[in-house]
Amino acid sequence: MANIIFIVFIVLLGSAVCAAAETSLLSVSTIKVRQLAQTKKPAALALQAIRHKINRPIATIVILNNIFNIVGSIVIGGLAAEALDDTWLGVFSAILTFLIIIFGEIVPKTLGEKYAKTLALVFAIPVQFLTLVFTPIVWFVEQVTSPFTKGRKLPTTNEAEIRLLASIGYQEGVIEDDEAEMIQRVFQLNDLTASDLMTPRIIMTYLPGALSLSEAKEDIIASQHTRILAIADSIDEVIGVALKDRLLTEIIEGKSEISIANLTRPVQFVPEVIRADKLLKIFQETREHLAVVLDEYGGVSGVVTLEDVLEVLTGEIVDETDKNIDLQEVARNKRKRLLESSGFSESGVQLS
């Protein structure tokens, strides 16, 4: 009878270890595994290697688990048949099944999920070693199961999941509200285009490049912008951008006869459909703070600045020269008034 109890204990222990190992290794998120691997500890690196190709370690654990359950049950059944009569053999089988379900599956898997990180690090190196030992058997199992397991590998995470994690992190107090808001705003960069952020051409400020500084002096001084567009014959012919402080410096130094065109620097042109994240990269690479937005026909739609893009991340940035107005709304209202004065609605339908 002692032999039966000992073998039952071994079977329960082996089944429990396999169940806990499988659950813990699968319960640690991929992001957490990569974070642990940055410590360069052997157990963490082993865990990362296991998760990188999880099918072999899991196959090893399943094989071991079935060895304990099947072989153990056969051995126990043989010993029990010799020691017990038919009535007690049925009772013994029911008790053994109950013990395996509770202590060989439910309890260890629950603990494996609850203490996933700790147990995964404990089991990582042993599982990695056993996977190497069982390589021939695992390889055979892989060949048999490969038609059913082939498929595209799913990404570790996605935008919706990151947004949700940020929201949960804020609710649980892991991150601050401003941090959560910033994370949410970052994803808006990929959703907005230059046409969403620009100052429309209808309310752009610019100066003819042919004007001399003396002729444009009042307009330069009155301008609220540090960068002023210079045009040729029309607004669709932008020749560059002039820095207001340079224009004022030349005026102060008595060089008022110089034309604005001679004091401009090249300007960046971007299409209406360019996304805000790409636009931000352009500003960084060119070290410019302003770009002219072109429509599909090459005409000027408006102007967009680095500040416009940064406001997507930070919210509205207002300095001492800004007016509390929505330029997009101003443009829409002005366009509406112009259309109505011409006898048309915004949709292009002629008004009676």
Automatic annotation (TrEMBL):
GO CC aspect terms: plasma membrane
* PROSITE patterns cross-referenced by the UniProt entry: CBS (PS51371), CNNM (PS51846)
Location of the protein in the cell: Membrane
Q: Which UniProt keywords apply?
A: CBS domain, Membrane, Repeat, Transmembrane, Transmembrane helix
Task: List, alphabetically, the InterPro entries matched.
Answer: CBS_dom (IPR000644), CBS_dom_sf (IPR046342), CNNM (IPR002550), Ion_transp-like_CBS (IPR044751)
Annotated membrane topology:
Multi-pass membrane protein
**CBS domain segment(s):** 263-320
CNNM transmembrane domain boundaries: 1-179
The superkingdom listed in its UniProt entry is Bacteria
List membrane-spanning regions. 6-31, 58-81, 87-107, 119-141
Question: Which protein are we looking at?
Answer: HlyC/CorC family transporter
Task: Provide the species name.
Answer: Lusitaniella coriacea LEGE 07157
Q: What phylogenetic lineage does the species belong to?
A: Bacteria, Bacillati, Cyanobacteriota, Cyanophyceae, Spirulinales
